[in-house]
């Protein structure tokens, strides 16, 4: 199965926008390997919008790579990426033009899927700008899905219609492997808070085979790049990454991998959070406590191997006391059980918790634990 677990990788858009090139893709591939990101699961290197010439080739009708950005063509880039042990991703759009006004795949779906297969693509992000007014949105995703399936390669379909047409209800049937459910993220706390809140009650549609994609991460951007906005603090990046992991979202890094180090590199390689994100059962977290208009929460996720992930999440702008009772997650007082916890951020033993578990959390912060229910 192409997406039995949430896909992990890197996408050029958040930092680079139209400033993409053969050289920066190769350097990013090298950095993904050398910084240990491939080792922990980040496999896809995806080139987003702005990679092609402004017009199709008049004779073949094909999309053509922009020769100044990609002087060796796209197959050479793909070969390099594959040579580093990574997988290669491309971008197109369901409309006649992409969002940044390059040729889109409308009415060229089968030709373009063949072209991407010739490049050796393993992944296609498929956007939703500039479609003819009369075109049926879901049908356009059926077409590209069929085209990819006919291309002769296994190509993961990353649908990106921003949640239109109640996407979660039909996109799995169409054959997509992940689906953007939101508008575009920018590098600010408010942006990822609002994106998460818009999907908070829709994650039950996300499961092995097709995952809810709440956009590329901004972790590590610190206000630099195409969607830089004001940037986030380390605490906010920690919370962003923990949310994406807890809710089994695709982990597509959006920062400049070549410059990623220190706190954020350690964060995106956190083995406990990745273990939660990639759990084979991909169960939706239960909300066991929700206060302050749903911004202060405790979530419990049932994991494989009789483990639980517990997340205390404070998305309000004030310090909060977050709490829940074990009864809320189904562990009765009479069971004699308590939760034995490991703090995922420190890897340290976080003690045992019976009946009632509470903590004070600063604004925008979270705490996440891997737990087992054991006899007290
Ligand atoms: C849309 C998508 C973004 C990005 C841009 C590229 O806005 O939602 O993720 O792909 O297009 O132009």
Describe the structure.
This protein has ten helices and 16 strands. It is an alpha/beta fold. The protein folds into two domains: 8-277, Aldolase class I (TIM Barrel, Alpha-Beta Barrel), CATH 3.20.20; 286-375, Golgi alpha-mannosidase II (Immunoglobulin-like), CATH 2.60.40.1180. The strands form three sheets. It has an eight-stranded parallel β-sheet with strand order 7-6-5-4-3-2-1-8. Strand 13 (337-343) and strand 14 form a beta hairpin. Helix 4 packs across helix 5 (137-149). The relative contact order is 0.12. Bound molecules: alpha-D-galactopyranose (GLA). Alpha-D-galactopyranose (GLA) is lined by residues 13, 48-49, 98-100, 127, 160, 184.
Order of helices and strands: EHHEHEHEHEHEHEHEHHEEEEEEEE
Our count of domains comes out at 2
| Strand portion | 15-25%
Low-confidence sequence ranges: none
Gyration radius, rounded:
21 Å
- CATH C-level of the largest domain: Alpha Beta
Which fold name is given in CATH as the topology of the largest domain?
TIM Barrel
- Mean pLDDT, to the nearest integer, reads 98
State the helix count. Answer: 10
- Bound small molecules, which ones? alpha-D-galactopyranose
DSSP helix fraction: 25-40%
Topology at a glance:
Layout: E1 8-11, H1 13-16, H2 22-34, E2 44-46, H3 73-83, E3 87-93, H4 109-119, E4 123-127, H5 137-149, E5 156-160, H6 171-174, E6 178-180, H7 189-199, E7 211-213, H8 234-246, E8 251-253, H9 262-268, H10 271-277, E9 286-291, E10 296-302, E11 308-314, E12 320-325, E13 337-343, E14 349-353, E15 356-361, E16 366-375
Parallel strand pairs: 1-2, 1-8, 2-3, 3-4, 4-5, 5-6, 6-7
Antiparallel strand pairs: 9-10, 10-11, 11-16, 12-15, 13-14, 13-16
Helix pairs in contact: 2-3, 4-5, 7-8, 8-9, 8-10
């Amino acid at each position: 199965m192409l997406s039995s677990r949430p896909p992990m990788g890197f996408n050029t858009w958040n930092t680079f926008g139209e400033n993409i090139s053969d050289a920066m893709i190769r350097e990013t591939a090298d950095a993904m390997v050398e910084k240990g990101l491939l080792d922990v699961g980040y496999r896809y290197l995806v080139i987003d919008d702005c990679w092609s010439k402004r017009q199709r080739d008049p004779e073949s009708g094909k999309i053509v790579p922009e020769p100044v950005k990609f002087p060796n063509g796209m197959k050479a880039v793909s070969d390099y990426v594959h040579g580093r042990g990574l997988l290669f991703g491309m971008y197109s759009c369901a409309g006649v033009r992409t969002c940044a006004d390059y040729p889109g795949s409308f009415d060229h779906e089968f030709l373009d899927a063949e072209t991407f297969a010739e490049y050796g693509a393993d992944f296609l992000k498929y956007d939703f700008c500039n479609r003819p007014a009369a075109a049926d949105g879901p049908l356009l995703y059926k077409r590209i899905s069929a085209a990819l399936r006919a291309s002769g390669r296994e190509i993961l379909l990353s649908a990106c219609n921003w949640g239109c047409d109640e996407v979660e209800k039909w996109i799995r049937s169409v054959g997509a492997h992940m689906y953007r459910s939101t508008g575009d993220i920018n590098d600010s706390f408010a942006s990822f808070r609002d994106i998460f809140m818009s999907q908070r009650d829709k994650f039950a549609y996300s499961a092995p085979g097709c995952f809810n994609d709440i956009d590329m991460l901004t972790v590590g951007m610190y206000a630099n790049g195409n969607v830089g906005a004001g940037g986030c603090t380390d605490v906010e990046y920690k919370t962003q990454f923990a949310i994406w992991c807890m809710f089994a979202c695709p982990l597509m890094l959006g920062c400049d991998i070549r410059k990623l180090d220190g706190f954020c590199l350690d964060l995106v390689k956190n083995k406990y959070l990745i273990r939660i994100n990639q759990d084979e059962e991909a169960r939706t977290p239960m909300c066991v406590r929700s206060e302050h208009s749903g911004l202060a929460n405790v979530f419990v996720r049932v994991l494989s191997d009789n483990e639980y992930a517990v997340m205390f999440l404070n998305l309000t702008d004030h310090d909060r006391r977050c709490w829940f009772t074990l009864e809320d997650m189904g562990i009765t007082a009479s069971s004699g059980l308590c939760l034995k916890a490991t703090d995922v951020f420190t890897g340290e033993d976080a003690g045992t918790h019976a009946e009632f578990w509470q903590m004070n959390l600063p604004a925008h912060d979270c705490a996440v634990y891997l737990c087992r229910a054991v006899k007290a």
